[in-house]
Amino acid sequence: MMFWHWLKRILYIGLTLVIIVLTGVTLLLTTHTGGRLTLYAAEQVLPGDFTYDRWQGAILRDFEITDLRYRNGETNIEVDYLQLRWRPWQLLKRQFHARELEVSGVRLQLPEVEPSEPSSEPLFPIELPNVELPFSVRLDQVLLTDIAFQQGELTQQIERIQMRGRTRGDAVHIHSFSLTMPDFHTQLHGIITPTGRYPLNLNTLLRLEVPGYGPTTVVGSLNGDTDSLQLKQQISGYLSAEVDVRVNQPLTEDLNWQGLIRILQSTPDGLVPDVEWLNASLQGSGTLSAVAGEFRIEGKHNEFGAFVASSEAEFANQRFALDSLFLRAESLGLMLDWRGGATINTAENVAQNMADTDIQLSMGGLLRYQDYLDADITLNLHGTPTRLDTFELSAQSNKSQLTLSGNASWGNDLEWDIAFAIDDLLLDRFSTIWPGLNSQIAQNQGADNQSDNQGTGAQGNISQENIDQETLNPEAPKQNRVSLALESSGRWGFDRSSGFSEDNTQIAIELLRLDGELQNEELAVSANLNWLGEHIHIEQLNALWGTQRLVGDIQANLNSTTVNVALSGENLTYENFSIAELSADLVADWSLAQLPTGSLSLVTATQDEQVLVDNLSLVLSEHSDNHHIELQGTALATDIALALNGNWQDQSWQGQIETFSFANEEYENWRLRRVANAVFSREAISIDEFCINNEMREAGLCLAADWNLLTQKGTIDARMDSLQLALLQPILQELIADELNLSGFLDADVALLIEDSQLSIESAVNISDSNIALPQQDLEFRIGASELLRIQGDQNSLTASLDLRTLDLAGGITGQLRVTDALNLGPMDGRVNVQLDNLGIISILVPELQAIVGRINGELGVGGNLAAPVLTGYIEVLEGGGEVPAAGIRVSNLNMRLDAPGEVGEPFSLNAEAQSGDGKVNIAGRYFFPEQRADVEIRGENFQAVQTRELALSISPNLDIIYSADGLRARGELTIPSALITPPDIETIDSSSRDTVIVRGEETVFSFEEESLPIDADIQVILGNNVRVEAFGFDGRLEGRLRVREQPGQQTSAVGTINVATGRYEIFGQPLDIDRGNFTFTGGAIDNPGLDLRVSRSVDSENVSVGARIGGSLREPNLTFFSTPAMQDSAILSYLILGRAPGADSGEANVFAQATLALGMQGGNFIGQQLGQALGVDEVTLDSTGDNLENTSLFIGKHLSSRLYVKYGIGLIEPVNTFFIRYRLTDHLHFETQTSGDRSGADIFYSIER
């Protein structure tokens, strides 16, 4: 009994203890207080410091905790906020189910660990663990924000982690996962099974900020298992890319891959600069140590245009192999298509054994570069990165062949032994980059084209088709071809400190052969070059090109910086320069430690066929440290002589000018009065009393100077005695078309001193009674004797005065100026007075203006300082007028006033008005001097602009014009109220091309000069109610308006219409009514408007109405006839011209038939030109060789060479064949022959161009 009693008691006690423990555990896990007790226990048990701020909830329910802190040594964990909402009872079902887990403000700091030793274990194979969870996991919402991690110097900031997912069996289903860091964001969803072969199917997104290029996004997928993985990615942002790669056995040494990688760039500011767009791709396969495939890249460069490159290559086992290479750049005209083999076998340690890398190449194929090169290339070489044991390059084109072979090394010094040869090189292809050759080819071929086209109205153009005559005519003579062969061996020494070593340099070049034909002249050149250490020697130079010849010997010493030149030449030319004879025997020092010695002579040096030097001899000699220079000869039609004797020391020449003289027909004879001492250097010039006298007059010039060229300070004394104004006549005559006569003389004295703080000047210019006359105009301008100009003073005060007195004109020009503290650009004060009551002098200065009347008054003030002068006052023209004979008008009531700015930065202002005919014009404008810009407004009404026999024109302008250094800009309207156009009767009008130049002897009579000032114009031209044309049988009135536009570098264009309001046309005395006449301008060239014309005529006696319509454009018109009743075109033409039908018993029918044929071919010749280009001939035309329509034939012609032209004709009605030949014997002599079925003939023509 007692046993059972105690057993019960023990059971009750045990059960009570279990209940108490379970109750305690339940209280700890399910109550707020229990949670706090659990945290309190953790504080007592955990090592280190464990604290928190607030606990809310229960462990087996939802709970949150704030400011959780744990610190143990260098380990520090901080959590600002943690919340968990979960279903703990799901643990009974072996599932952890968290409805929401939120953590924020996490800072994790861990102690720095020592870096682990590199593992000696092989990387492969990689074994993944089998991860089997004892329970399932379900996470409805996980959010982690503001996480900071630090371990030693490693820091990482995570802004946000968000995740949803669950497990099902062994598979992990990731519904969503996102990670956000600064400049980085990634998202992931899919399925992965972390057991066995790890099958996975994941979709990914990655967004990151690339420094300097902006945001980039990567979207793709990863599918497969440990046996095979498929990676697909799309990249967008500063560049676009596509990756599609399959990797087999990714965890073993047998890893291999195959796939496609493509990169796209669509903006010029992407990864590759200056490329507008780019498409690069790699299609290939590989392993861990090998890669092979095809690489292709295409795109468009901002400067070089579109390009394409592709190659097939392989890299495996330290060996690189290239099988093909293709490159094309259309804008550069470059194309390369090579095949063969190229291998690079590298050493295991490339950085230390670069010299052991073996390179072999054997490739060839097409290489094309613009029009210069089109050849098959073969290249074979064997070597290393520091040497080529053997190399051989050959290039073969249609006519030329190039070879280059030998060996070279550049490990320490550059050493080589090569042979180079090129046969039959056509230089015409290089004419665009060889200016001297280009000009000669252009002249030669331009002359040929001009001769061939004489009498045909055609113009010759130099183009690739003209230059490459072999393409047009294989039988053409071979011009501009050379062959070259040379051998060279040597060493170019390098020094680590200076980069070049003279001691180790030894170069030998032997020019074996350079010969050929250049511009129809034989060419032959030979020479040897030897470079041994500091000595360079070019010997046995012998160059012959036609009549040009240059022979000699050149030696240079790099150590002593001297060169010995012994050359002689004959008939030397380059571009537009030529020298008949040249001889040089000089020893020079390019460091200028000493002056050169020897001799140099020139005979007949010309430019553009104008003689610059007739003969010139320069002798340089040195005796006892004295260097003597003697120059004699004739240059620019002037006999000159100069002799200097002195010494050269420290880059300075000091000596005497012993002789100086020159004699010219226009400027007379001048000679040095006495020996002058002088010093010349880079820093200063010193001359002691250098005086020259005119041997025919009492005139002379003297100069003494001691001037520092660096500081621009020193003294200058100059004097001019009785300098005849007639000596200036040749200079001024070039500015005036009519004959000019000058008389009188000038005297001048100048004494100038400029030092650091001192300025002194005393100068005066005096003029005698002088006369300026134009005998052909019967005009004369006389100047009275006066002190024309005086400047004197010092650094404190400087004064200037001007006094120009006239004897024939009332008034004159006077002025005074005072400058204070001139060395410091101090203030100035002055005034200029102008009073001219007779303006006849203007006709002398501008002969195009005659009978000038009016007066000029003006008062100008000068203020400010020398650095920023200020002009005040005005100049005005009152009651002016004059005649313009070329325009046939007289301008009257001309009043103009020009006002000075008055302040710095302000513009000049202009106001003017004038009358011509019954109208007037007003001009207002401003001129900004510092910016060189002007604004002008022109307003007028019915101003008579032209009044000649051929043209009477009145205008009403409303224009705004802006002038600047960038060009001229014009806007506004130009109304033509009335005009009468009556040009003289002429049979033909021939217009000259822009390259026409007319010469008479050595004088250029006429040439076109392109305007250098760009013009931007947009002007409305309006025709008034009284614009009439009486010319070439037409009498009518025009009306309409045009918008005329002119842009720099573009043709003048127009938009608008000009109509014939009323008018009649008379031909052969027969009047025609103009029913409709429109000239339409649609924005194209102003000289090619569209035509819409209709003329008609009624013959009442025969009840006939006929007419013609003209359409098309001015350059390509279309002519059609109409009539009532209907009839043939020849009959219509007879009615239009004669007013009756063609005579039945006369040749009128044939005449009008031929005229109709000719009119019809006005547009047909254009079709013939297009047909000729398609057939490869030069001419396809219809022509009639007799008086009857039956003689009409179709002619086809072609230039077989630059001298020979052949034309063949086939009769369209009569079976008559015609054969025509024209052969150019010389530039002026032509031979022509023509043979047909019934007759033959031959002619010789001699032409003279004027």
Label the overall shape.
extended
Strand content: over 45%
Proportion of helical residues? under 10%
Total helix count?
9
The average pLDDT score comes to: 80
Distance between the termini: 161 Å
Uncertain stretches of 5 or more adjacent residues: 435-478, 986-991, 1157-1167
Based on CA atoms alone, the radius of gyration comes out at 49 Å
Task: Give the number of DSSP strands.
Answer: 74
Tell me the structural class: mainly beta
Major sheet description: 63 strands, mixed
Protein name: Translocation and assembly module TamB C-terminal domain-containing protein
Keywords: Membrane, Transmembrane, Transmembrane helix
Main location: membrane
GO cellular component, one term: TAM protein secretion complex
What can you tell me about this protein's structure?
This is Translocation and assembly module TamB C-terminal domain-containing protein. Keywords: Membrane, Transmembrane, Transmembrane helix. It is a single-pass membrane protein. Pfam families: TamB (PF04357). Helix content is 9%, strand content 62%. It has 1250 residues and is mainly beta. Among the domains are: 30 residues; 137 residues, no CATH class; 85 residues, no CATH class. The strands form 4 sheets. It has a 63-stranded mixed sheet that branches. A 6-stranded antiparallel sheet has the order 69-70-71-72-73-74. The longest helix has 29 residues.
